[in-house]
Amino acid sequence: MTQLTRKFWGWGYEEVKLPEAHLQKFTQLLQLTLGIKQFETIAPPSLESLNLRVPRFALPAELQPICSSSPYDRASHSFGKSYRDIWRGLYGQFDNPPDYVAFPSTEDQIQQILAFAQAEKIAVIPFGGGSSVVGGVEPTQHRRYKGVISLDMKNFNQMLAIDKLSRTAHIQAGMYGPAIETALKKEGLTLRHYPQSFEFSTLGGWIVTRSGGHFATLFTHIEEFVEAIRVVTPQGIMETRRLPGSGAGPSEERLLAGSEGIFGVVTAAWVRVQDLPQYKATTTVKFKKFSEAVEAALQIAQSGLHPSNARLVDPLEAFGNGLGDGTHTVIILGFESAHFPVEDNLQKALSICKVLGGVFEANQPTPEKTQPDESADAWKKSFLLAPYLRDEMMQRGIIVETFETAITWDKFEVFHQGVNQAVKKAIQQHCGAGSITCRFTHLYPDGPAPYYTVFAKGEKGKELAQWDAIKAAASQAIVALGGTITHHHAVGKDHQPYYAQQQSALFGQILTSVKQSLDPAWILNPDVLINIPPQVQ
Ligand SMILES: Cc1cc2nc3c(=O)[nH]c(=O)nc-3n(C[C@H](O)[C@H](O)[C@H](O)COP(=O)(O)OP(=O)(O)OC[C@H]3O[C@@H](n4cnc5c(N)ncnc54)[C@H](O)[C@@H]3O)c2cc1C
User: Fold this and answer.
1) Positive/negative CA dihedral, 195, 200, 201, 203
2) Residues whose CB falls within 8 Å of the CB of residue 326, separated by 6 or more in sequence, listed in order
3) Is the CB of 126 under 6 A from ligand 1?
4) Does ligand 1 come within 6 angstroms of the Cβ of 196?
5) Confidence grade of residue 370 (pLDDT, cut at 50, 70, 90)
6) How many angstroms separate the CA atoms of 327 and 329, rounded?
7) Which atom of ligand 1 is nearest to the CA of 136?
8) Is pLDDT of 108 > 70?
9) Which of 121, 155, 391, 447 could bond 10 through an S-S bridge, CB–CB 3.0 to 4.6 Å?
10) Mutate which of 131, 214, 390 for ligand 1 pocket (most atoms within 8 A of beta carbon)
């Protein structure tokens, strides 16, 4: 098989090209909606042109064989994959690369790296797939550190054991999504956790960011599947007990899930897996009014039917993704099960939609155990190509980024209006032209997880400042209107000030105390999740 090369500045592989028709459709759509006559394209920099800062410290002999200072490794560990990251990559702004990238294969090697970093005041940034969109893998600029090591977990890539009786798997933290599923599939099993970044993200990254898979109800966040975790901290190894459930005090696993690399490096986890689904049924339902679709989503979420997919997509976003002509809000409905036919459940969900004005075509839903219907399939393709498309749009100077949240149903209407108003105002003020679209990625009985996409006209060289202004307006509105700064993208550096606002003051103190006891030298992922307190600086 040909070896593919990951882009050091953007999403995915260099060699993967978008289908021309897909690209053309979006370029035309943007030209039309943003009033752009001609795109001026920005070419990504060459690796040779980067001129990276020389490493600021020397490595001890024992770490040299597992560390790299190659321009490719350092550049590709300088950023995650948010708009902010890719923009800086595209413009060649690699001002703060890690000094070295370490590729340990054993826990002893991780401990050696941490010991060296503690002694020398060097920051260590755990790195999974590098798909963070919140500044989670970006080296700190804090002046208390002599330098930065990015600690890439890619050699922790083994399926260690499968316990078929308990239906659990012991998986190393650096294993990527596709490798996990390939190994489990051989046993008729699946972890069934598919974030959009699945191809380029790892189990360890998912756990510490509390990632959300693409199934709409029931088990959406990875921590629901985590049975036990093993972590190397600067104070030693912490391993939690394998248990199906426990009422013994606060949960250790839950403290580590969401810790974003600031307490330790996750090396492996036992996760709950499932039998491969055999029965599937999918269909799409159209609604004239957004509010009717929202009501249908609410009723489905509270019906106990637990669809695997119940993605509400607003008209403009639906159009962009091949789901109609842009005049209707769409709900993509899907059910699946390893053990039981799901047709009945789909019919029950459709009857909820019908009462609320939902329309679905006569030849839908698709029969059991067949391919998904065409519209739902178009959505899936579009979903997976979206990150590649974003790189292409950015090269044409378009500001394109997403943000996400969750809110209870009682507040949704006011919240949604408020967020839209704030973002539209910021787009108008900073870009002149642009739009915001919405979909629900997850549904809970008590509220949806709205996911917003912004497209706006960028001014060459100023696009990042323009986006930062829009993002600030969105984040302020989200927190002020009672939402969470993130439903699944995590906190990182970018959301840290807003996370501090939404959490209780005492919880902030608790996090700082845990950090202090596990990482007293504050070497792990500084500035992420919590601020370095003044007494440490
Ligand atoms: C196009 C795109 C689509 C996305 N879609 C989704 C989605 O559907 N759902 C979702 O939840 N998120 C999504 N994300 C965000 C991102 O993919 C998730 O946060 C993911 O869980 C990160 O995993 P990773 O392995 O890439 O971790 P990284 O990006 O490498 O790291 C993320 C954080 O975890 C820490 N970390 C990584 N590995 C370890 C470890 N072994 N031990 C300790 N700390 C570690 C890092 O220091 C960092 O703070 C998306 C991102 C992109 C770019």
Assistant:
1) positive
2) 315, 316, 318, 319
3) yes
4) yes
5) very low
6) 7
7) 49
8) yes
9) 391
10) 131
Atom of ligand 1 nearest to the CA of 125: 47
Burial 159-168 (b: 16+ CB within 10 A, else e): beebeeeeeb
Q: Is the CB of 206 under 6 A from ligand 1?
A: yes
Rounded Cα–Cα distance for residues 398 and 27 (Å):
10
Which tokens in the block code for residue 397? 């100077």
Where do the domains of the chain lie, and which CATH numbers do they carry? 279-480 (3.40.462.40)
Q: pLDDT band at 366, cuts 50/70/90?
A: low
Distance from the alpha carbon of residue 308 to the mean position of ligand 1, in angstroms: 22
Contact status, residue 312 vs residue 412, Cβ threshold 8 Å: no
Degrees to nearest 5, angle at CA 512 with 509 and 514 = 110
Interface confidence (ipTM) of the complex: 1.00
Mean pLDDT lowest for which of 12-16, 127-131, 365-369, 399-403? 365-369
Q: What is the pLDDT of residues 282-330, one digit of tens each?
A: 999 999 999 999 999 999 999 999 999 999 999 999 988 888 889 999 9
Tell me, using a 6 A CB cutoff, whether residue 201 lines ligand 1: yes
The CA R_g of the chain, rounded to the nearest whole Å, is 23
**Nearest residue by C-alpha to atom 44 in ligand 1:** 261
And the tokens for 373?
A: 């219907």
- How many Cα neighbours within 13 Å face the side chain of 240? 26
Compute CA distances 272 → 193, 436, 444, 521, whole Å: 11, 37, 21, 34
The atom number, within ligand 1, closest to the CA of 261 reads: 44
Ligand 1 atom at minimum distance from 203 CA: 25
Atom number of ligand 1 nearest to Cα 82: 53
282 lines ligand 1 (CB under 6 A): no
pLDDT surpassing 70 at residue 369: no
Structure tokens at 160: 């260690």
Mutational pocket test of ligand 1: of 83, 110, 132, the residue with most ligand atoms within 8 Å of the beta carbon:
132
